[in-house]
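for the recovery benchmark. tokens below, seq after
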């Protein structure tokens, strides 16, 4: 089994290209959150943090003109990748490449 692939280009303000890169890569990284588990009486059973992840591997490149960024995404989970595509297209991104099927 391979990866599903998606590449998009998003026009951005020249002054904000680096911020977009950091934000988009950051939102696709794993992060930790509290995960309190309570019993029926409301007593804490476990408070072990859990990891949250979109399931997409992401890289953002700032293109030479600094007016566009290229968002490259790989995933083994197709619904996660389609959700990301929808979200970035609403921001104005155009799809450059997609591979949502395997031969």
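predicted aa per position
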């Amino acid at each position: 089994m391979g990866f599903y692939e998606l590449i998009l280009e998003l026009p951005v303000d020249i002054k904000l290209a680096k911020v977009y890169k950091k934000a988009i890569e950051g939102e696709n990284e794993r992060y930790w959150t509290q995960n309190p588990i309570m019993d029926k009486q409301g007593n804490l059973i476990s408070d072990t943090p859990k990891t949250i992840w979109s399931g997409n591997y992401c890289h953002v490149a700032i293109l030479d003109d600094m007016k566009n960024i290229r968002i490259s995404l790989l995933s083994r989970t197709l619904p996660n990748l389609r959700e990301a595509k929808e979200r970035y297209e609403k921001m104005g991104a155009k799809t450059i490449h997609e591979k949502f099927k395997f031969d």
